[in-house]
Amino acid sequence: MGLKRIILPTDFSKNARNAIKYAIDVFKDQEAEYFLLNIYREPHATSSSLVSIVDILQKSSEESLVREEKKIRDLFPSMNLNMETVSAYGDTTLQINKLAQEKEVDYIIMGTKGASGLKEVILGSVTADVIQGVKIPLIAVPDRCAFTGFERIGFAADLKEIRSKENLNPMLDLAEAFGSTIEIITVQREVEQPSEEEAMVGYDIHEMLRGIQHKFVRRESNEVIKGIEGYMSETNPDLMVLIPRKTSLWDRLFKISVTKKVALHADTPLLILQD
Question: Where does a domain end: 141, 172, 194?
């Protein structure tokens, strides 16, 4: 895959450290450069006290990063990790995008607070604003999730909106590196037959994935979300890939009511691709 540059955001929690361990396990046989990132913000304060508070927070962030880096290196004593610590002040999404642009980053990998539904998984510590606002692929790792390979990768997206193979490269790179099978999920109404347009879209995707083991998995459901939910709960893929949109699937995922949560497996890491 060549050198991969990866941002590892941390709030110094066990959950964040688990995601970092997961990331290093994924890329341990690849050449990788890691940026251990802590973003701090001031509490509500008056302007007169703000400067001193920010200085204190910066010092605390930098000192905590030094300790955290040591803990991570201790987890991989036989590896000479290429890791740089970065302490940044301000908005999480803006700082991640800034660092990603400066360092030409390939992935963000960060932890989530495990929950029973996709909305809680994403909105735990990885907010919807971050996922929708960042400009590079993001892997969201549930709490206590351990990397065991990517034998099966589930892929759910509006296939008609995929404009080029380049958009899929982060998924394809992982699939190629781990010999994965990509399972392309199509959700159709229970009595509906594939249209001619859908057949053509399927052919286009087949061409984009040429050289990568893949297959189509048809789910029958009157609701896209329930179809994806059923796929995940029944087959338990090693990685689930989604492409956020301002419409369709993404809106449905985040506007769904609390009482109708998307009960996707909290144990499944999510790769969020950017369009």
Answer: 141
For residues 185 and 21, the model is more confident at: 21
Total structural domains in the chain?
Answer: 2
Phi and psi angles of residue 57, each rounded to the nearest 5 degrees, phi first? -65, -40
Q: Is residue 146 situated within a structural domain?
A: no
Whole-number Å distance between alpha carbons of 158 and 66: 43
Domain holding 179, by residue range, is 152-272
pTM for the model stands at 0.85
pLDDT, tens only, 85-125: 999 998 888 999 999 999 999 999 988 764 444 544 444 44
Contact (Cβ atoms closer than 8 angstroms) between residue 139 and residue 25: no
The 10s digit of each residue's pLDDT in 185-234 is 888 776 556 555 555 566 678 888 888 999 988 888 877 777 887 888 88
Nearest CA among 90, 19, 32 for reference residue 61: 90
Question: Which residues are CB-contacts of 91 (< 8 A; sequence separation ≥ 6)?
Answer: 39, 41
